[in-house]
Amino acid sequence: MALMITHECINCDVCEPECPNEAISLGPEVYVIDPARCTECVGHFDEPQCALLCPVSCIPVNPAHVESREALWQKYLRLRTINLQN
Predict the structure, then answer these.
(1) Domain 4Fe-4S ferredoxin-type spans what residues (predicted)?
(2) What does pTM read for this prediction?
């Protein structure tokens, strides 16, 4: 599963620098999470750092991007390989 940021976001900028996959960026109104890069911190941490640190708890699971833990692990490995090649 990828996470998403809801419109309750206050643009505090706490989440973006904590994302190990650089999946979070500033959107037109609030921060957004790229589901192709979000692994819910699988491979890096035991729990998603953005959701853990969010002061307004506006980062739920994105129901449009449901993935198993194994799928998240495979995405992490794919992203890691891409990063090592660059």
Answers:
(1) 1-29
(2) 0.91
